[in-house]
Amino acid sequence: MLEPVRRTYSSPLRAESARRTRVLVRDAAARLFVDRGYVSTTVRTVAEAAGVATRTVFTAFPGGKADLFHEALAAAIEGGDDSMPTVYASASRDGDPVERILDEVVGYGADVLERAGTLMLTSIKSSGADEDMRRFAEEGARASATNAMTLAEGLAAHDLLRPEISVQRAADVLFTVVSPQVHSMLRHDCGWDIDEYRNWVKAMIRASLLH
Question: Which residues have a Cβ under 8 Å from the Cβ of 92 and sit 6 or more positions away?
Fold first, then answer.
């Protein structure tokens, strides 16, 4: 006797509800990670902050806290339609190519840090106490170093670096100046507004690297 075919029921409303719950839980976790730190945040406190049951958190994020942090950080970084600025395209436009490059480089970096800098810093601060955070911090540092090297190579390709500045030195400066640690110190600890921060970063790059 043939078994009856079971059809999978898929409701757009149910799918949308699940998506909204996932975002609600993710955003609650992000706030707690920043406010309390990763180690002090538990799945239970995330559930309470989101107004859902603990099992709902695990249903949405089977990997628990590490899964939540990964999702929160990715969402903060991706935040919009940003992409790495292209130095070649900027330098080919009319006007001052250096100023255009600085605007794109600093604008991109500042936008990402405004959205995700606090979570990046959370992973760095918690890296000594949690293996998952150590991995996130190391992955973030590698990605930042790669981005810095790409930008430094672009500056060198257009002969914008001073003769005594190597590509590696330029990448090191970019990696340091546009970092979550420096961003946090100036924006949060010192209370600089975003324009003051952007202008300082541009001035530092000009003074340290460019003709």
Answer: none
List beta partners, residue 210. 161
Residue 57 to residue 72: CA distance in whole angstroms:
13
Exposed, middle or buried: residue 169 (CB in 10 Å: 0-12, 13-18, 19+)?
middle
Separation of alpha carbons 50 and 42, rounded Å: 12
* Beta-bridge partners for 40: none
Q: Tokens 């005594």 belong to which residue?
A: 164
Instruction: Give the CA distances from residue 182 to residues 73, 113, 142, in Å, rounded to whole numbers and listed in that order.
Output: 19, 10, 17
CA distances from 127 to 12, 37, 44, 121, 151 (A): 40, 11, 22, 10, 27
Q: Do 69 and 123 touch, CB atoms closer than 8 A?
A: yes
Asked if 211 contacts 160 with a C-beta cutoff of 8 angstroms, the reply is yes
Query: Do residues 83 and 107 touch, judged by C-beta distance below 8 A?
Result: no
pLDDT (tens digit, 9 = 90+) per residue, 73-117?
999 998 854 445 545 444 444 567 788 888 988 998 999 999 999
What count of residues does the chain have? 211
DSSP string, 10-24: --HHHHHHHHHHHHH
Structure tokens at 148: 């810095």
Q: pTM score, two decimals?
A: 0.82
Contacts of 53 (CB under 8 A, 6+ apart): 47
